[in-house]
Design a protein that fits this description.
Blueprint (H helix, E strand, L loop, with lengths): L5 H5 L8 H35 L17 E5 L2 E8 L2 E2 L6 E2 L2 E7 L3 E11 L2 E13 L4 E8 L19 E6 L1 H4 L1 H6 L5 E4 L6 H19 L11 H12 L17 H7 L9 H7 L3 H7 L5 H4 L7
Antiparallel strand pairs: 1-2, 2-5, 3-4, 6-7, 6-10, 7-8, 8-9
């Protein structure tokens, strides 16, 4: 009889396991833990390798509004932008009337840049942001940076952190980018004037964005919710042209619903109003719905009160 287990049994206690048995169990548990961690690590390595090896698709059954790539052709101070999107919608984005056009713009006639914020419904910490360029001859051109999706695919913030969507720069008419968001989607839209330290900076920014657009047509890249989204790409262009103009790391470029606050704090919006008053002044949804689809839509929507 093993005396080391006799007395515990007499007093109703659990038997004391031999030291060697305890050590063997600990070793097995330790080995199992390392097997599990090793398995998880191997899965992560395979997943990362798979993501890195994935090629950005250049063909697919794309959403109609994302089916054509915009490109730019420079000729001195003039640039011809091909496939400027100008879709029309009959009350819903599900049945668009596709339309694109080519147009030549005089870069020397660039006068203003506008920063537009479209907060997500039910998730105001996130927003789609884009820029529009105004020319003295009455032309307007929007550049919207988006995730390119195929038919049946919807945008998802988590999926956007993986290699899911190609990165796309869209040149568009404001009847498309602004009107559809305000009048069809009924989104809360804010259109802020950008403060230019030099009039020539508008030309530099548009040129740089159009060159990136051309580059993506030849060397496609992945969209990324964190590092290459609509807002972080705008910030990337600004810091590329004007180093240090924006903080190198800014959480507002990921939580883009706060990006207008960052722009105001950095002196990039052409207003002295505090954010709540600036949002009130440059809120354009109600005005857009009142104006409707007219030829001089872009000029009318920019008639803001002086106060």
């Amino acid at each position: 009889m093993q005396t080391n287990n006799l007395f515990p049994r007499l007093f109703g206690l659990k038997p004391i396991l031999p030291y060697n048995t305890v050590m063997d169990k600990n070793k097995k548990s330790h080995k199992l833990r390392w097997y599990v961690l090793g398995g998880i690590g191997l899965i992560l390595i395979i997943f990362v390798a798979w993501q890195e090896l994935k090629k950005v698709p250049t063909t697919g059954d794309w959403w109609p509004a994302l089916s054509k790539l915009s490109t730019a052709e420079f000729n001195g101070n003039f640039v011809t932008v091909h496939n400027v999107r100008n879709f029309q919608y009959n009350g819903s984005e599900t049945n668009p009337i596709p339309a694109w056009y080519d147009k030549t713009y005089d870069l020397n006639k660039l006068t203003k840049v506008w920063y537009i914020s479209d907060p997500f419904k039910g998730l105001s910490i996130a927003a789609h942001t884009f820029v529009s360029f105004e020319f003295s001859n009455g032309d307007f051109l929007s550049i919207s940076i988006e995730a390119r999706k195929v038919q049946g695919q919807t945008y998802n913030l988590f999926s956007g952190m993986l290699h899911t969507y190609p990165l796309m720069y869209i040149a568009a008419d404001e009847h498309d980018t602004v009107f559809v968001r305000a009048n069809v989607d009924k989104d809360d839209l804010y259109m802020y004037p950008v403060k230019l330290q030099d009039p020539g900076h508008a030309k530099l920014l548009l040129t740089d964005m159009l060159e990136k657009m051309n580059s993506l047509a030849v060397r496609p890249e992945w969209y990324n919710t964190v590092t290459a989204n609509c807002t972080s790409q705008i910030a990337w262009h600004i810091n590329k042209l004007f180093p240090g103009r924006l903080p190198r790391i800014a959480w507002q470029t990921q939580l883009s619903g706060y990006a207008d606050k960052l722009a105001l704090q950095q002196g990039m919006l052409d207003t002295d109003l505090p954010l709540d008053q600036a949002r009130k002044k440059y809120y354009v949804t109600a005005k857009s719905q009142k104006i409707g689809y007219v030829a001089n839509y872009s000029s009318l929507i920019r008639q803001f009160d002086a106060k």
